[in-house]
Design goal:
Number of helices: 11
Strand order of the largest sheet: 3-2-1-4-5-6
CATH architecture of the largest domain: Alpha-Beta Complex
Distance between the termini: 61 Å
Structural class: alpha/beta
Shape: globular
CATH topology of the largest domain: inorganic pyrophosphatase (n-terminal core)
Largest sheet: 6 strands, parallel
CATH class of the largest domain: Alpha Beta
Helix content: 25-40%
CATH superfamily of the largest domain: inorganic pyrophosphatase (n-terminal core)
Radius of gyration: 21 Å
Number of domains: 2
Length: about 375
């Protein structure tokens, strides 16, 4: 099928329907809705692409919010007779996320080199700050929808964009679409129960069990509650910490450096399948008394420095802080980014990844990251010693 190009807006929030009017066969927005004009534009955009092939993209390592949002995007697209595929590029490394995908029968596909992404009519991006594909595609399809809750950066064209920086999770936005569109969830339907459970789990994880939730997140939770599978939610929320993750946390504890309310910890070399242990270590070290900001990093798979930032400091914006600290590559893609209370960074080692002396490679990587961080917060590196 040839690409059918809707009129791109590239705006922070696209409010103009692409083609036609809101379908008379579906009820208009009903009840209180934070942004009814966005919902109508979303539905009209999907209507304009009815019957097409849609590629739904998960960037980065899939987490509960991105997984649930992708499934919700597919739910809506299939209502408009679209053929959908959800593709992710980085491993699903966290055991809780693997359990989530397995329990939901989510039908996610990891990218392989033999996949032809240009074979699709459109792309849809969820829960990501930018729509840049992590692989080269000769003729990438146009972007149909872009739904996210991170800090708006702009610089790209889409048929429909809805970015809510005041939402704790992208799942909350999709829950609002479901509640008010007339294409929502049905009681007693097992597929809808799985979707509701996935969205609820996405909201809980991205808002630290609602401690960081905003009004839209609470409204979404109230709507989803009636549809969720409580047994499934308990199952996917109570996965044990792996032995390797415990080892990573222990290395973080042993190597932490504390200066004021700031904690930095290097955890050494980490296998790709255990990389989520870095984020879990950052979460754990934030419990340290007196700490407002924690940065944890390691070398993953021997070729990239991977790190996580967690903060409850009122003066640190993780997105701007990490982008300023680590900069961008030659194509302008930042090595780091984030949202209100958390962020992450990935810095390829390039030629240095060929170094066979792992001890020397770690020493260089560790000193470089620590020097950058301590300079950023105004602490001289030579004064730091392990806590």
């Amino acid at each position: 099928m040839a690409n059918r190009q809707p009129t791109p807006t590239g705006e922070h929030v696209a409010l103009t329907p692409t083609n036609g009017e809101y379908s008379a066969s579906r009820p208009p927005v009903r009840g209180f809705c934070e942004a009814p004009e966005r919902l109508e534009a979303f539905i009209n955009t999907l209507e304009s692409a009815r019957g097409s092939k849609l590629l739904i993209i998960i960037k980065g390592h899939p987490d509960p919010d991105s997984i649930a949002s992708a499934i919700a995007q597919r739910h809506f697209a299939q209502e408009f007779e679209m053929e959908c595929s959800i593709v992710y590029f980085d491993q699903i490394s966290h055991p809780e996320n693997r359990a989530l995908v397995k329990s939901l029968d989510a039908d996610l596909r990891q990218y392989r080199e033999d996949m032809d992404l240009s074979d699709f009519d459109y792309m849809a991006f969820v829960d990501t700050q930018t729509p840049h594909l992590p692989v080269r595609v000769a003729k990438p399809p146009p972007i149909l929808t872009f739904v996210d809750h991170h800090k708006y950066v702009g610089g790209f064209d889409t048929a429909f964009t809805d970015i809510r920086e005041d939402a704790g999770a992208t799942s909350s936005i999709y829950a609002e679409y479901l509640e008010h569109s007339g294409l929502g969830l049905r009681l007693g339907n097992s597929t809808d129960a799985k979707l509701a459970t996935a969205l609820m789990h996405g909201i809980r994880t991205d808002t630290d069990s609602l401690l960081l939730a905003r009004p839209i997140d609470f409204r979404a939770g109230a709507y989803l509650r009636q549809f969720i599978d409580n047994d499934l939610l308990r199952l996917i929320s109570k996965q044990s910490i792996t032995a390797r993750t415990m080892e990573i946390i222990q290395r973080g504890l042993n190597n932490k450096v504390i200066r004021g309310t700031f904690l930095v910890a290097g955890v050494g070399f980490v296998r790709e399948e255990d990389r989520d242990g870095i984020a879990q270590t950052a979460d754990f070290l934030m419990r340290h008394e007196g700490i407002e900001t924690a940065v944890v990093f390691g070398i993953v798979n021997g070729d990239v420095v991977d790190g996580s930032l967690r903060t409850n400091s009122p003066t640190i914006d993780p997105d701007g802080w990490l982008k300023t600290l680590f900069g961008a590559d030659g194509a302008g893609r930042h090595y780091g980014g984030g949202r209100r209370n958390k962020g992450g960074f990935r810095i390829p080692l390039g030629l240095f990844a060929r170094c066979r002396d792992r001890e020397a490679l770690w020493a260089i990587g560790k000193k470089t990251i620590e020097d950058l961080v301590f300079e950023k917060i105004g602490v001289e590196q030579e004064k730091t010693e392990p806590a």
